[in-house]
TrEMBL record, chains A, B:
Residues 10-322 form the Enoyl reductase (ER) domain. The keyword NADP applies. Residues 1-23 are annotated as: Disordered. Keywords: NADP, Oxidoreductase. InterPro entries: ADH-like_C (IPR013149), ADH-like_N (IPR013154), ER (IPR020843), GroES-like_sf (IPR011032), NAD(P)-bd_dom_sf (IPR036291), Quinone_OxRdtase_PIG3 (IPR014189). The keyword Oxidoreductase applies. It comes from the Bacteria. This is NAD(P)H-quinone oxidoreductase.
Length: 330, 330
């Protein structure tokens, strides 16, 4: 089958499209004919830093496609259109997915839209509700609001919790898009210190919850932006991970709960439970169109390097999709 | 009435015993004839750093005594023996306590034992169960195991959750005492790096929960000692609060929940709810004698400075009590 492979024969690892044997599905797995895969930062890390998230030599953690081999319990049927997380191997014509975490793609949605859902929406759902415990009408600060997870989180916080959403981004185009998704307040972090804008927007109280994809470079301003007893979920380190000075007293006096999290390395059982709850609670909104996947661009699989560079330059609003569709699939 | 007062007329604040007017209780308060008060680190901080925890000029956040004026709802009667947290003003002959948080002293217990309970047991209960979410048979690392909160936490974790308790302390005498209270593993942090001992004691898995009264000086070893998905409650900074280097990636890859907390500055409603749940769930153990307050020493109120110095030198095992008992009370 056609597949992206990591060629590490040179000085720097390269992604290339080549031929690999079709993967074999276990009894509790689905074998999926992948139509669309989506790009995630973890795919870039695997290439650059040799910190693979799985033993699978093929990158890619989420796909949308059709079932070609069902699981032994027949929880899905051959021909079903499904989307979901895979344990690596998504950038290929065929991929294996545990049936326990597969979700049917709503009828109104294309494969492209389906591939844009799992990773970012499950991450946003996990961080907002399971870890961040967002309550009705609380205030949440969502950094990188125009990113994949950011666009998902803005919609989820607004639609499910009627939260007051404050989003940050670095261009007016991105901020406008955040507003269209439902953000109540948008902040251009390049034009003003975001903590001052948060203070102004919250009557100097700060926010109940921070979704932090940035890390080190935002540390002090996040500390200043969070309310006493606030929750702070650390889910990315786009602004570095190394802090040169931390005063623990600030965490104590504000009684902050700081939780680090990652989705990809979690267990199959965790991903199954998360996918199940998400499908039950959020897919109805997606079917009605009140929550929607946000797609930035679609690249043919042969242009996987261009797709990665597009993400690395932070030019995207929403998801970058890789199309596996050959003539036979169209 | 007799009271400790902070004399700040000199270069350094001094605690002195003097005369003050008896405080006035509001409708929802009890006026208490204080028999015993207990010493807490926050009392020392108020003296040294001018960071008062309340507008009350008299130090002291917990007392045991008899009710001399009941609240208007008569939730307690004149003559009742009560213990609990006060919003400052504990180091005095009379103190005001919101009735919502007062607890009856079990019959078998003296005022001295009653005064040794509220602050440390409520703090340990809050950090273990409300914040730390300790589950049955989990493993908990309790630093400063022979301190007031440490001795309370060892007993609560053991009796209520049948947890595997690992305690650290700096002398063999303290470690022996931790074992007597129920600690399964004790570590002399002066003789070996505690993280290595924790690793050995947990089959290299680490602990589910850390109760951290130490802060900066233990940071790296705590990071090494915690299990993936572990909870870490920061409740003191005996080892400093300033960290020169933190790698946030470690919090993410281990998916750590780090929560800073303090009890004294929390709201009346919080203290009421915590005291109520504690009284219902833990006082039966104390009545039966399976959980006991740990008293290090009792000082007459006139020796308040000696009592503080005893705590500052970390010589105590358990609580340091101040006796307000005049001849009339005996």
């Amino acid at each position: 089958m056609k597949s992206v492979i990591v060629n590490d024969s040179g000085a720097r690892k390269q992604l290339e499209v080549g031929e690999r044997p079709k993967p074999e599905a276990g009894e509790e797995d689905l074998l999926i004919n992948v139509h669309m895969a989506a790009v995630n930062r973890t795919d870039i890390i695997i290439k650059d830093e040799n910190t693979g998230y799985s033993s699978n030599p093929v990158p890619g953690v989420e796909v949308a496609g059709t079932v070609v081999e069902a699981d032994s319990a027949h929880s899905f049927a051959v021909g079903d259109r499904v989307m979901g997380l895979v344990n690596g191997g998504g950038y290929a014509e065929y991929a294996v997915m545990p049936a326990s975490r597969a979700m049917k793609i709503p009828e109104a949605l294309s494969f492209t839209e389906g591939a844009a859902i799992p990773e970012v929406f499950l991450t946003a759902y996990q961080t907002l509700f399971w870890i961040g415990k967002l309550q009705q009408k609380e205030t949440v600060l969502i950094h990188a609001g125009a990113s994949g997870v950011g666009t998902a989180a803005i919609q989820l916080a607004k639609q499910l919790s009627n939260a007051k959403v404050i989003a940050t981004a670095g261009t007016e185009r991105k901020l406008k898009f955040c507003s269209e998704l439902g953000a109540d307040v948008t902040i251009n972090y390049k034009e003003q210190p975001f903590d001052q804008a948060v203070s102004d927007a919250t009557d100097h109280q700060g926010v109940d919850l921070i979704l932090d994809f940035v890390g080190a470079s935002y540390w002090d301003k996040n500390l200043a932006s969070i309310k006493t007893d606030g929750r702070w979920v650390l889910i990315g380190i786009m602004g570095g991970s190394e802090l040169e000075h931390v005063d623990l007293m600030a965490l104590m006096t504000k009684r902050i709960q700081l939780t680090g999290t990652l989705l990809t390395p979690r267990s199959d059982a965790y991903k199954a439970e998360l996918s199940k709850e998400f499908a039950a609670r959020v897919l109805p909104y997606i079917e009605q169109g009140t929550i929607r996947p946000v797609i930035d661009s679609t690249f043919p699989i042969e242009s996987v390097l261009d797709a990665h560079q597009h993400m690395e330059a932070n030019r995207n609003i929403g998801k970058i999709i890789l199309s596996m569709e050959s003539e036979a699939n169209k």
